[in-house]
Amino acid sequence: MSASKAIAIIGGGAAGFFAAISAAQLARQKGLSVDIRIFESSGQVLKKVRISGGGRCNVTHNCFDVKTFCQNYPRGSRELLSPMLRFQASDTVDWFKDAGVQLVAEADGRMFPDTNSSETIIDCFLNLIEKFHIKLMLKSPVKAIEVVSPGRLKLKMGDKESFTADAVLVATGSTPAGYRLAESLGHTITERAPSLFSFIINDLLISELTGLSFVDASLTLTFPALPGKKVFKQQGPVLITHWGLSGPAILKLSAWAAREMKLADYNGILTVNWMGVEKLNDVEKRLNVMKSENAKSYLKNVYPNILPKRFWLSLLDTCSIDHDKQWSRISKKEIATIAQALVASQLKITGQNRFKDEFVECGGVALPEIDFKTLASKVCPGLYFAGEILDVDGITGGFNFQNAWTTGWTAAQDMVLFNAKTTAT
Length: 425
Fold this sequence. Notes:
The longest helix has 25 residues, at about 400-425. The chain has helices at about 15-30, 45-55, 65-70, 75-85, 90-100, 120-130, 175-185, 250-255, 260-265, 280-295, 310-320, 330-345, 400-425; strands spanning about 5-10, 35-40, 60, 105, 110-115, 135, 145-150, 150-155, 160-165, 165-170, 195, 200, 215-220, 230-240, 245, 270-275, 345-355, 360, 370, 375, 385. About 35% of the residues lie in helices and about 25% in strands. Helix 1 (about 15-30) packs parallel to helix 13, helix 2 (about 45-55) runs antiparallel to helix 6 and helix 4 crosses helix 13. It is built from 13 helices and 21 strands. The chain has a six-stranded antiparallel beta barrel.
């Protein structure tokens, strides 16, 4: 017979809830007695889940090949391979289906609950912690963790409040309090920087074009002020906003270049090919064909059909070419100028714009200090980490939540089974 195991989860977010519920499910399956408590410093839980995907909750991505899936993490891709082989996106879909939530994939691979509401995920989690008698301790900030003995840790909430656990999972996201707890127990925190943000760009080409989008632009990001001359490339949808550029391709670019962006104080050069993958020669040929086939038409009325008209007119303005000119009167030099602007507009980035509470940070607990087969600390026995507190971050599209589910689930397995083996009586 085994004594009741105490498991403390610090952080009432996605990773914390998933770990708590997964631990309770496993304990029930194995006939083990557990006391699982979630300690949340605020009065609200699952805040990022609520606002994710515009309130729809982008739960995961429907790529079920683990190696391919892991390529979507600028930091942590290699380390996540092992836990993902045990619990990947397809397992997430099955887990939620068993819990009564159907996930549906959209054309771009993102997966949402079929209700299109994040409240469906929140209700699912809240119902499950009630079903498994998991204690939710709101307004209970953990101020310190003390090692009682190897594998036994005491959480201190105040002068007189404490809880001693056989396993402690820190799943506090990118909050400073979580990093402080990790450091106090001997862990290293790598350099942190915002990830998944849009670019502030003040350029005449796009300044009056808020709301226009491009389905498949090609982007090249460079930092002239930094040594090494690193180059980052991305391709995909781009959106012009009132402050600059956003959209999936921009967010992905910001993730891969997160640390360089911070080092450069968010100043860089973004070269945009608005024609997608078409090269300069191809675009010049296309423009010359348009000229020969539309000699009497005006420039303002005939343009590449993948471009919004307002953008075309703005581009002509920046090239100092009259809209009311007929195509027959366009010179070779002017065609070359337009083609160059279409495939290589150089825009100066002067800052970054974060999405209020729905942001991701790169940096966190150093990955060499974690055993990714279990998510256990190599530094402090009984301590585990899951989610964004680790130096792991994904691009947009459901990858960051999958990191939370995978690492939370993996930690839960070891917290229950390891403690069952070591403290059974």
